[in-house]
Predict the structure.
Amino acid sequence: MRIPLSQPDITELELKYICDVLRTPNLSLGPNLSKFEENIARYVGSKYAIAVNSGTSGLHLCIKALGLSEGDKVITTSFSFIASANCLLYEKVVPIFVDIDYNTLNISPDKIEEYIEKSIAKERDFKIKAILPVHVFGQPCEMDRIIEIANRYNLIIIEDACEALGAEYPFDSNSALYKHISKNSSSNSSLFHDSTVGWRKVGTIGKVGVFAFYPNKQITTGEGGVIVTDDKELACLFRSLRNQGRTENNKWLSHVRIGYNYRLSDINCALGLAQLERINEILQKRAEIAKLYNEILKDLENIKIPFISPKSKMSWFVYVVQLDDSFSKEQRDKILKGLYEREIGCNNYFPPIHLQPIYVKMFGYQKGILPITEYVSERTIALPFHNNLKEEEIEYVCKSLKQELLIQKRQRRIY
Ligand SMILES: *Cc1c(COP(=O)(O)O)cnc(C)c1O
């Protein structure tokens, strides 16, 4: 039984939408682009959505459009996919990695505060400009705390929500998020009047947020991403930057700034439109698969199943378990190899960014600076996870994992 780590979920609807585009002359910058952007904005609850050709391009444009540049510092997490830090390096901005929370695996607000206070005490020139939280594996970060810190030190929030389309964070009338929303989006605030408890989709809490649509994400456009914001000027700037620095009403060959070709074709947008129509069904399927895994694995010795926050609503991106202290990194790697040999797709999400060879070379980082990030990343195993995973496949994966754990335990006894 061969079981891939992930797999897109394409139905007749997706095929129909794509074929429909191919019968029109508008393969790029056509009606599917604007419709996809409108539907994304409506779904997440932002004023503007700007589609781009990858999540990475979206993050890059955020850094660029916010005017972050050489020598500026942005606080972020090392326990993430490389793109969330690389987007800073493109603009010579320095990523400051702080440690994560052991349960949520997201950036720790305490560690953010600690870093800022230390750097205020020692630096005359305050270079920290923004916080870039990543909602890792679809789990919302502690946004109330992050908003408070950002307000206190006048920092911009750039949300990497590439793994978290559909995840939600709660607010009540006393929360930092509620005050933040009412202050920042006056025309939207009626939406929230006298509601004591409401929910806000992640990605729409910061100044800007980015979602990604690579085939392993909750929904896919093949390749693609989208930036969301409530800021009209930024939205215009994003549209210009993704399209060679053109202004929207200007002539095709008039360029007012250095832009890029980060456009997303109408074929990709058509795929995205079909997927977005099915988003509720997709997220529900994923939640059910995670629940099945949880039920089978919750009592398994030496395994920690994913943390489920009692506060916010996660959107399942991957299913990642952690081994406990009794296993070394080498043993985890052998378990991955064992699963792989059984044709079960699996991976070590995430090796820390700060220990990637290019980051070590550029910044001289060494092991030991982010103990929780490093501890967790040596123990994670991402198991097969996609919308159409069958119950018997889940059972087979869990059985195989148990056997591989046992093999490693026995070897420990022998040596
Ligand atoms: C997927 C992902 C991105 C963007 O990836 P692309 O492949 O460029 O679309 C960025 N950040 C995180 C955390 C991701 O998981």
